[in-house]
Amino acid sequence: MAQIAVCVGLLLMTEILYRYTHVPGFDQPFVDQHNFGNYMDQALMNKINKDGWVAINCIPTAVHTIAGALAGKWLLKNNLNLKPLLIWGAICLVAGFGLDMAGVTPIIKRIATSSFVLASLGWCLWFLAVSYWWIDLKMHRRKLLFFTVVGMNSIFIYVFFEIVGSRWFNGYISAISNGITGWFTHSAMLQFIIASLCIFTLEWLLCYFLYKKKIFFKL
């Protein structure tokens, strides 16, 4: 119960910070470039991200981490009882989409509004329950190598994509891909899709290499 109380507290704190700080120029809770998250970016980094991402979305998204740990502990102790995961998933979905549909708090991923955190957490809990039931309880484990390769090094590939990928790798591969595809198409959308597939394939192969070498990064 303590962890659940912390999760509720984090979401309430997020709501309060965005709604009631009233910083001049940053007093519009859910408007890009004019919300409290943008103000904190200005204070912490002396800049505001143009695409709407904010640093303090780590506060509400910590709920995902805590909930994931709780779900994992539950499965370790009660691995045949998935009902609580389904119930909590339903509660989160109703709460998240309810806040959005009622016009109280819109679902915005980039600042991780409380409605977004709840709605996404609901889907994650449901997907976890269904996957655990299908794979671990029903033993349908064949032909899952494609997913296993990435899942066994999920921390590594996330960090790689966010640091190496965004700063160098993605742009480099895209430049090569766009140069080649430019020979037969001028569709920006098609070039973007092909470049994305190339990046994904190469990063999957990197995970596959680590998998074959039995190198796994863990926290």
From the N-terminal CA to the C-terminal CA, the straight-line distance is: 24 Å
User: What coarse outline follows from CA principal-axis ratios?
Assistant: globular
- How many individual helices? 8
- Please summarize the sheet with the most strands: none
Q: In terms of structural class, how would the helical and strand content be classed?
A: mainly alpha
Average of pLDDT: 91
Number of domains: 2
Binned strand content: under 5%
State the assembly state of the protein chains: single chain
Give the helices and strands as they follow along the chain: HHHHHHHH
List how many beta strands DSSP finds.
0
Rg on CA atoms, Å: 21 Å
The residue ranges in which pLDDT falls below 50 over 5 or more consecutive positions are: none
Can you give the helix content as a percent range? Answer: 55-70%
How is this fold's topology laid out?
Layout: H1 2-20, H2 36-45, H3 58-77, H4 83-101, H5 114-137, H6 145-151, H7 154-181, H8 188-212
Helix pairs in contact: 1-3, 3-5, 4-5, 7-8
Explain what this protein looks like in three dimensions.
It is built from eight helices and no strands. It has helices at 2-20, 36-45, 58-77, 83-101, 114-137, 145-151, 154-181, 188-212. The model has no long low-confidence stretch (mean pLDDT 91).
Summary of the model, kept short:
With 219 residues, the protein is an all-alpha fold. Helices cover 69% and strands 0% of the residues.
